[in-house]
């Protein structure tokens, strides 16, 4: 009986050894097409990797063109008819003796910046100014007040002033885009005295003094505002 079991076990072991190549061969051998497909599949799987997706979502979004950033491009859309020249330098109004020192400082700095060229989005005398950049620079460096970044937001931030009550340093606003006097707030300057204001007008021009009585500005005048720093001066 033991002898028969030994022979049976030996026969089974032989059958297994004989059949192993049949099972091992498909696992060891691969066709050229399957080996070429493997890297492609792995490449596709990598695209959907959670780590890659998280990294992609954390990456900063592409920035919009500079001309549309921070609201600076909203200023100075001038329609036709703007005068090529402002008030003659010899006819610029003088400040009244009772003008506060704070307002004199503002106007003094603004006048020092005359003839600096207009640059859309400009905020510094080294490169040039647009209208709101000019006003913002003067207030920041003369009285340490940071104004909003464009004329429309500067208009909303100030205290309303009647035209007859304007003082040196108050801001004057205009609707220069669209139909005369009917568009949005798009331009700003700094009031001097005697109906005159200083501003950075538009492309091809420089910081200069203009008169509110000149027809172009009179038709587009939107009002005057007083920044908080000047409320008591």
Automatic annotation (TrEMBL):
Residues 64-84 are annotated as: Disordered. One of its GO terms (molecular function) is cysteine-type peptidase activity. Residues 100-228 form the NlpC/P60 domain. The keyword Protease applies. Keywords: Hydrolase, Protease, Signal, Thiol protease. Transmembrane segments: none annotated. The keyword Methyltransferase does not apply. GO terms for biological process: proteolysis. InterPro entries: NLP_P60_dom, Papain-like_cys_pep_sf, Peptidase_C40. PROSITE patterns: NLPC_P60. It holds the Pfam family NLPC_P60. SUPFAM superfamilies: Cysteine proteinases. Residues 1-24 form the signal peptide. It comes from the Bacteria. Belongs to the peptidase C40 family. This is Hydrolase. It comes from Dyella japonica A8. The lineage of its organism: Bacteria, Pseudomonadati, Pseudomonadota, Gammaproteobacteria, Lysobacterales.
